[in-house]
Design goal:
The protein has 708 residues and is an alpha+beta fold. Helix content is 34%, strand content 12%. A nine-stranded antiparallel beta sheet has the order 4-3-2-1-8-7-5-6-15, covered by helices on one side. Strands 11-12-14-13 form a four-stranded mixed beta sheet. A hairpin with an 8-residue loop joins β1 and β2. The two termini are 37 Å apart. This is Myotubularin-related protein 12.
């Protein structure tokens, strides 16, 4: 029985094409499946003619987006192949391609052959896909609004997550962090009379007057993020524009001086200011680095994969992405040192205080506040600092394709940094790396409002009014935090860490178990490894390339210009010399190879990158087997409670036959093992030339060499 591809009443079929061949791209052999390619106002979907049987249903399945579905917002770039050459497709097309390659923002790559499809259908489907996924659109044309006008009204939106859209939520947070002695939640922005960029409610020092808040639309006002146990607070401020005439500049300087004087005397701690626009990479640098970095994982075929593998370290380092992660983590440690050791308030300053301020303030709270390492605590943190805090998700993710200049993966940068902490200290987090991966995927699912507005004001003004199906009344937007919309209970179990160290019994002896190694070197090396007769890093073939990299490239990675100061280094080394309290302060390791590539997110669709029966998941499977055995013994010992306890046994996902699981489980299940192509040594030497594999131009690229 075929499953219908329509999930929603509000989903409309826009165009379709039959007899489309979807390649399995792992070995370049042109094997694949035949089916229908469709485009709706929500997604692009490939409908396989051989409907999958329920026996093959994956354990971890998304109810909204299937494995052959691409939401329109998830499409990154589309290439057409003409006579073995590929060209970027953007606007109007004069000629239609024989093959379509779709690169996705979640790093999937789809290869569709259109040679056997009717010409009229090719024209319709190609121009339809390009138009609906790549051209600028109006906000109200997002599927978000179509879905919200017909959304079911029975989902549990809150789900223990604090939304920070009421005054009460802010007061509760002040009380939780004991910040209510020196700080107050204000209603000054009700009706958005201060600024449309600020949330309805926020927190400021008690001594700041309403008049001051109103004077410059909230600019120059220290806004509270979080209070440390010792009373020191983390604050953020929206800076004044740099280009101003002298008289305006003098007035603003006098205003700021007054504010600083007020919050620098008792009961407030000393104040340290940090202008993030000068102490961290620019958004443009972050965007450039990530654009280069993601190209390493958008692999068309096996030959491409092994070509990048030969130059893996140098390609990885040249992107600068891991170095940006290291700098951001280092900045968060500096802020933590001021708060924790120096008992100093820290004021983060940025032009709008909605980009890097969000990254640093969130990271500091994850490192210093164990509540932020629980699932509901982390979700509440994202609501507070990002969603209500006014991060411009719509612009930064470029959901409307309005301006590439505004695009920057700021939220992804945060998730990459949090992942470093999760993989270094697994027992400290109630959630898993799988949780972070599906959260990153949810950025592109336009049925949740969470990541599709620039501010609370923009959401509020678009919530009321007439919906698209002419029913009047407010839209019913869903929040991403209701995971039951995307996953059934069995799949949701993968988001929870079974080895989380519960607060009543923090176990300090587990620190050593937090070092999981992946097969591919996912960080840049500090020391030479033993040479081998083979070559290429994936199979630990570390020949002369290692020497080149260590000699020429890694030097600048280690000896960065922003090398930690003595005070910082002392704080960092002192903390790392003691046992870890999983519910206390957590400092990430940030030296050289300690910063790793988030393997699950970036390598999950590449069969060559999988270890069958290996990696973290194999270890986790053994531990879960033991836990299951212990629980079974508990059942036998306590027959009276057997039903209740046996219910618990199944709350842990059953990972039997761990030898067959991929290291990138649960995204890569039991995929076919890919074989390294048997190329002569001369070909591998050819692959080491200076072609820049990181750049993908709009120009034609000759594919004939790699597609035979």
């Amino acid at each position: 029985k075929k499953k219908p591809f329509y999930f929603f009443k509000s989903e409309l079929l826009l165009c379709e094409a039959s007899t489309v061949y979807k390649y399995i791209q792992e070995d370049g052999s042109n094997r694949g499946t035949c089916g229908k390619l469709v485009c709706t106002n929500f997604k692009i979907a490939f409908l396989d003619d051989d409907s999958a049987s329920d026996d093959n249903e994956p354990q971890f399945k998304n109810k909204i987006v299937g494995e052959n579905d691409i939401t329109l917002q998830c499409v990154d770039q589309i290439y057409g192949v003409y006579d073995e050459k590929k060209k970027l497709l953007t606007g109007q097309l004069r000629k239609y391609p024989e093959k379509l390659i779709i690169y996705c923002k979640d790093l999937r790559v789809f290869n569709f052959c259109l040679r056997y499809t009717k010409e009229e259908e090719v024209k319709r489907i190609v121009s339809g896909i390009v138009h609906h996924s790549q051209t600028p659109k109006l906000l109200k044309r997002l599927f978000l609004f179509s879905y919200a006008s017909a959304a079911p009204n029975n989902t549990d939106g809150r789900n223990q997550t604090v939304m920070f859209d009421t005054l009460e939520d802010w007061r509760d947070e002040l009380e939780r962090t004991k910040g209510n002695v020196k700080y107050k939640a204000v209603t000054t922005n009700e009706g958005y009379r201060v600024s449309e960029k600020l949330p309805l409610y926020f927190v400021v020092p008690i001594c700041v007057s309403e008049e001051s808040i109103l004077k410059y639309q909230g600019r120059g006002i220290p806004i509270w993020c979080w209070s440390c146990h010792n009373g020191a607070a983390l604050l953020k401020m929206s800076a004044f524009p740099k280009e101003q005439d002298d008289s305006t500049s003098q007035m603003q300087k006098a205003f700021l001086d007054g504010i600083y004087k007020t919050i620098s005397k008792p009961p407030y701690e000393l104040l340290k200011m940090d202008d993030l626009s000068s102490s961290l990479p620019s958004l443009q640098d972050i965007q450039t680095a990530y654009t280069r970095f993601k190209q390493l994982f958008l692999i068309d075929n096996s030959t491409d994969f092994w070509a990048t593998d030969v130059k893996w370290f140098s390609l990885l380092e040249s992107t600068n992405w891991l170095e940006i992660i290291r700098r951001v983590l280092k900045k968060a440690i500096e802020v933590a040192e001021c708060l924790e050791r120096q008992h100093t308030n820290v004021l983060l300053i940025e032009e709008s205080a909605t980009d890097l301020c969000c990254v640093i303030s969130s990271l500091v709270q994850v490192m210093m506040d164990s509540y932020s390492r629980t699932k509901s605590g982390f979700q509440s943190l994202i609501q507070k600092e990002w969603v209500i805090g006014g991060h411009g998700f719509l612009d930064r993710c470029n959901h409307l394709h309005k301006s590439d200049k505004e695009e920057a993966p700021v939220f992804l940068l945060l998730l990459n940094c949090v992942w470093q902490l999760v993989q270094q200290y697994p027992p400290a987090f109630e959630f898993t790396e799988t949780y972070l991966t599906v959260l990153s995927d949810s950025l592109y699912v336009p049925i949740f409002s969470t990541f599709f507005f620039n501010s609370q004001h923009q959401k509020d003004t678009n919530t009321s009014g007439e919906s698209l199906n002419t029913q009047s009344g407010p839209f019913r937007f869903l929040t991403v935090w209701d995971w039951s919309v995307q996953f059934d209970p069995k799949a949701q179990a993968f988001l929870n860490n079974p080895l989380y160290a519960e607060k009543p019994k923090p176990d300090k002896s587990q620190r050593k178990t937090a070092r999981f190694k992946h097969q591919r070197q996912l960080s840049l090396p500090l020391t030479p490894t033993k040479s081998s007769t083979k070559r290429g890093f994936f199979r630990e073939e570390t020949d002369h390339l290692i020497k080149n990299i260590l000699g020429r490239r890694i030097g600048k990675f280690i000896n960065s210009s922003d090398e930690p100061s003595n005070s910082f280094r002392e704080f960092y080394d002192s903390w790392h010399s003691k046992p870890v309290d999983y519910h206390g302060l957590l400092l990430p390791h940030i030296d050289g190879p300690e910063i790793k590539v988030w393997a699950q997110r970036y390598l999950r669709w590449i069969p060559e990158a999988q270890l069958h029966g290996g990696g973290t998941i194999a270890m986790a499977a053994k531990i879960l087997d033991l836990m299951e055995e212990v629980q079974s013994l508990q059942v036998k010992m306590d027959e009276e409670h057997s039903q209740a306890i046996s219910g618990d046994v199944h709350s842990v996902p059953l990972l039997r036959n761990s030898a067959r699981l991929s290291s990138l489980f649960p995204f890569a299940l039991l995929q076919r093992q890919s074989i390294k192509p048997a190329l002569p040594t001369s070909t591998w030497k050819d692959l080491e030339d200076e072609d820049d594999l990181v750049k993908r131009d709009d120009e034609f690229v000759d594919l004939s060499g790699g597609m035979s």
